[in-house]
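Researcher: Next entry: histidine kinase (Bacteroides pyogenes).
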Amino acid sequence: MKFNRRVYGMILGYVSLISTAVFCSMYLVFTHRAIIIGILLIVSSLFLAAALVRRLNAFQMKLKLFFDAIEDKEHTLCFDGSSSDADMNELCRSLNRVNDLLGSMKKQVRQQERFYFSLFEELPDGALAWNGEGKIILANTSALRLLGIEQLVFFHQLERLYPELGKYVRQKDKKLRSCLLTSVHHRQLSLSLNTMMLEQEVVTLLSIKDISRQLSDKESDSWNKLTRVLTHEIMNAIAPVVSLSQTLTSRPGVDEKTMRGLSVIREQSERLLEFTSSYRKFSCLPAPRKERFSLTGLLRELSYLLQPDFERQQIRFTLNAPSEVFVSGDKKQLSQVFLNLLKNSVQALSGHNAGEILVRIDGTDPLLISFTDNGPGIPDEIREKIFVPFFSTKKEGMGIGLSLCREIIQRHEGAFYLSESRPGRTTFTVEYKPEVDESENDGK
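Model: Predicted structure:
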């Protein structure tokens, strides 16, 4: 306000002097009383007008420079406020204060942006945003991981990988703003689409949520309920048959043909009881008893256990992992999972001349444990069935191996899936959220 009053006073003073000089000069010239003095007053009024214009231009140039700097988002500009012109010094100090405030606000905005971006990165669900030209402006790590892509610059990269995603984004029906998508890692993803205006530009937002766990939990729960009912009914029906066949075979006077028939009935009934008992274990899996142990140590122990099989089939086993990784979990249950996966790889490499099995540990949260072999791969038509209880491609298989592995990993709050399968490379991946003591790991 002080600066405004000074400027207004200066302008008013100049205008008053110029008006007075012009009025007096005109009066002296037209009355012929002092023509020379009148002319001098006219010249003086011109000099005063020029001085006023020059002062105003100086203010205008300062303001123009200041607003140009704001438009260019340049807040390091500093005006010199130590000249002999008090009004100009006051203007420079005012502009510097405004510039400092803008710089402080810009710094606060950047800090907030970093904070919100950190939160954005920590989201368990994926989030993508792209502008009208299809350029990706935001993509968190979860989105890239769920979509199975390492780097994303333009949306058309996703369209090449997921053609159905492009159709979903371009659909006209505004009510259909969510859909399901199967990722390259065979995960079930729930997509939700939205648009907004940002700086007069349409920005499309895509949220991605992995619902494989929820679907798998419901599927496992359904199978467990069915298995409990079936095993209960079957065992109640078979147990008396076994008991009765044993009683009849022990009676005297039974002829040889009847004895053979009763023996066959008993053996088949006992085999059915054993088969049913294995499914009861699957449906009544105990809760994990967690303890802290060395994951790499466990994998090395399992490799030693299977070393005779590796040597017999000439399989090269490789464990690619940090020197020591500790996790918290039920060691016996996890050992059963890893041993089953290794045995499956050994069986897949049966008759293979140069078999290879690679176990790799990557990441920290989640921990990725992958089991890869160079066998023939899993045919497309049965990939969706390999985790279903009772399904098996082996002649003597009961069909609970992989389904039991998934159940155990899910009870450890992890994920288990087939990440890749083609001739020459099959990979099963375990995602595990370990309770890792990083200080101890670093000290190893």
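Model: Note for the record: The chain has four domains: 1-107, 124-213, 214-284, 291-432.
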